[in-house]
Design a protein that fits this description.
This protein is an alpha/beta fold. 30% of the residues lie in helices and 22% in strands. Strand 24 and strand 25 form a beta hairpin. Bound molecules: adenosine-5'-triphosphate (ATP) and magnesium ion (MG). Magnesium ion binds next to loops. One of its GO terms (molecular function) is AMP binding.
Length: 669
Amino acid sequence: MPSEKSVYYPNSNLFKNAYVNSFEQYVDLYKQSIDNPEEFWGEIVKQFYWETPINIDKFFMYNFDFRKGPIFTKWFDGATTNVSYNLLDRNVRNGNGDKIAFYWEGNHPDDYSRLTYKKLLEEVCKFANVLKSKGVKKGDRVAVYMPMILESIVALLACTRIGAVHSLVFAGFSADSFAERILDCSARVLITADGVWRGEKHLALKSICDQSMEKCARNGHNVEHCIVVSHLGRVTSPPTAIQQTNKTPMKNGRDEWWQDLMEDASSLCYPEWMQAEDPLFMLYTSGSTGKPKGVLHTTGGYMIYAATTFKYVFDYKPNDIYWCTADVGWITGHTYMVYGPLANGATSVMFEGTPFYPENDRFWSVIQKYKVTQFYTAPTAIRALMKFDNELVKRHNLSTLRVLGSVGEPINPEAWMWYYKVVGNEKCSIVDTFWQTETGGHVLTPLPGASPMKPGAASFPFFGVQAALLDESGREIEGEGEGYLVFNRPWPGIMRTLYNDHDRYENTYFNKFPGYYCTGDGARRDSNGYLWVTGRVDDMLNVSGHLMSTSEVESVLTEHPNISEAAVVAKPHPIKGECLYCFVTLTQNTSYNDKLLNELTKLVRERIGPFAQPDVIQNAPQLPKTRSGKIMRRILRKIAVNDRDIGDVSTLADTNVVEELFANRPVNA
Ligand code: ATP
Ligand code: MG
């Protein structure tokens, strides 16, 4: 059992009836999931509909060791099912047709709507018929470039209904990046919307798609059909908006309005029975470390894993209202806004806007409005929101909350404590969920009713996941220690390949340590067995022989009251090998001066050691981030050495930030 030191226990009143309500129960279930996976998952798969039942002899098969042949994973091979059937028809048949599947909250607070399971099923069937009428068949790829509107969910599920593979690209990517991704999967049908408001910013999505389609055509690939949701006309524009006069350009014969096509579509569509190992969707990683990878997930295993992690990690109960703020364009949006919640018949909130519009308390007002019970967001959002006065949180009634989730980056203890105290009122459990696009669902996480929490620790493996730490030579580290975070067997939701690039798949994840899936992240196991993710192994610092993780130093820097965000990278050093180059974002109304620099240096020396003393601390009013909000340390490493060859920046949210940082390198840098 974890020690008392800095440990926060689940609130016994809130979690009396949790699915897993003690640490012992977690350990028992975990043991069963590892010792007898057929039994553990066998109970779960029974709750789903399989047209051809699962053959116990082919329950799961895999090879993680390249010395024994090609890498592969298969779950429930030979069984057939349909994901949209399990998410929609099954819930309607169980008597939940009138249950709300989604509350939709628009960018502007005056815009909102809702969708029941029955209505969602009807819309999905209609759109599936629209796709069929455009010639889309089982196995075809469909490109989706959509904002946070209900039609994006309809579009994804319509693909799964007929066995088409969706490739949804976050609607914030440039025309070029989107074109590359269309070419990669050679999609002939594209689904988008005319445009969207995000805060006071207008995005003309269809125009961006036009440029992408032109670029594809120049490369010899024609998108034959572009289906456009007419969205702008039905929502409230921000008061500051300049009247949009340009009409959305539509190309004859290629572009059609979603609403027109839906009018005549039949609402009956028999599901296509898919093999458990047939592709379900492909999705690109965030691109934090390089060119994004086109991850492929398959049908049966992904569905079961999304459903199971959602149920246990959020302790979702039938009357709960769940809200995940992630964009549908990221894996978090796929697994925990669409597939996981719907597989559990859950009611979710889908939010189109930003945390800062119309005011900086929008998240808290939405939680109050819908009486949200589970809230799932990213450390980058938490850090941005904790900069404001706590009063912004406190003036809303957040008493319905039970579980607070975090995902995307290591959460620094400072942000964790604010989330726990100010948002969760010291009664909610925080689930710091570690996972990747590649893992399909959570792989390390506390369970809200069972795991005593340590601020900043992703804690323990989920059911069926066997984690290990390896040293440089590939030996497993037992007990306390730090090393490469790897997994030595597959769980149902692990990706099966990189689309059209099985070589890159094997090289990236399986080559370094034969027999293991290598996450590329480092982790530390403490004396109580808790796992702490320390960040990418490529981001490790080696100063005079002392190995350090970037997140360790960043957590210390953000403890200082004047620092809201910090990013640390290694810079080559003639004597020490490497030295620390730190970028710090200050809180409002504080200044960057010698006093601050001395305090920060002292803090790091005291908390970590004299060897960790930063060589450079640069003021960074903004940090370069991926469009999913993660700090891109590889770009900061380039700034540290003043090298302007910064590589693939397709996923960089704002290139001006990089220019600014190059221009403002301190004199001693
Ligand atoms: P790319 O693989 O293209 O470089 P990416 O790894 O950022 O991009 P994602 O799959 O969206 O793309 O993110 C997964 C990564 O996010 C993990 O490997 C890890 O580094 C980080 N991460 C996610 N959740 C957590 C968490 N709870 N704690 C620590 N790190 C996390
Ligand atoms: Mg990654």
